Amino acid sequence: MKITVVGTGYVGLVTGACLADVGNDVLCVDVDAAKIVRLERGEIPIHEPGLDQLVVRNAQSGRLKFSTSYDDAVAFAPVVVIAVGTPSGEDGSADLSHVLSCAREIGRRVTRDTLVVVKSTVPVGTNDQVRAVLRQELAARKANMHVTTASNPEFLKEGYAVEDFMRPDRIIVGVDDARSSELMRQLYAPFNRNRDRLVVMDVRSAEFTKYAANCMLAVRISFMNEMANLADQLGVDIEQVRHGIGSDPRIGPHFLYAGVGFGGSCFPKDLRAMIHTAGAVQEPTEMLQAATRVNLRQRGLLAEKIRRFFNGDLRGRRVALWGLAFKANTDDMREASSLAIIESLTAAGAQVQAYDPVAMDNARRLLKAVDGVRCMPSAKGAVEGADVLAVVTEWLEFRSPDFAELAGQLKARAIFDGRNLYEPAAVRAAGLAYFGIGRGSAVAGR
Q: Which residues carry out catalysis?
């Protein structure tokens, strides 16, 4: 098939590269000319394992091309995928201006029957708006082509996006006509061979499914964080609890890890959008709002533990911070907990020496105006001269440090484990104080 993908951000680039890798001819279009120049040179603007090889391989084969032209986008293929950003507005709503602008540009140019696939994360009713824009532009030209839309939300985990696209656990497709349904089945046939992963539903239900999934996961994380904070006060180890409740098949083991809160481009934004959507129809969202409040509080928890450790006075203290990305295997720092932790520590007079394996370029850009922060070239470099260590992101290289060596380096001999990576007994055996999330550390001097 020939497919156009509009938008070369995280979703669009992964989508285009993966579709090309199974034999399709794909044109990725973006209005950012500098980004297109970089992509044509084989430079990938985001960190996503395996994506760079995928893009280069398919570009060299001729199956993956890039352009800044909407004329090219519409002329190239009868299937056009919209994968542009939908950032949060000031009121929490999803900003649909880029999506609707794409629809307008397509409608002005289309000369044949076309399927417009909305892959951007959008609230219920967006496809209706896209169709209205397309019809308006077609009517203005007195064109009578059959242009339809489909909802095809993405469920890609940052750090595992290529794997998720190539081996999906489900493919959600929202359509209102048989022709669109058949085209979507053809599009996803290469990813759907050993069992039928396609879940076909109406368009509005597909739009809702994306938000409902992310809200469910966000609520689950906030629930575990709230349980962890209670566990800390009761002398309970939330890691043992996690294993206990995760063995129940009704609950399962996923998204039960207590920590410093969720961030990134999806969960916080999608929670806000769902709350706004519900507000527009006067439907209460107590659980979603509670999950948001818990998460905001959780982001400040590690800094508060450090502050208490030093009896409320952080002036002149130096904190080594491992991990800046909102999660491992990405360089994404959007709404990362590290930013809140650094802001809190430096506002209290502490110095922060921060390191992340891949997010340092983003960190320098985001933290350049923050006094008291140094971006370090290595994990060991971050620890030099530090009083304590705070672990914020669960990168593999942080999983098994030399605790005895750290005990000799950290002046105040304490580790604040924001991801519960370490066994408290092993840390304490090396002569270090250990403070995790929900590890019972508030009881009996732990």
A: 266
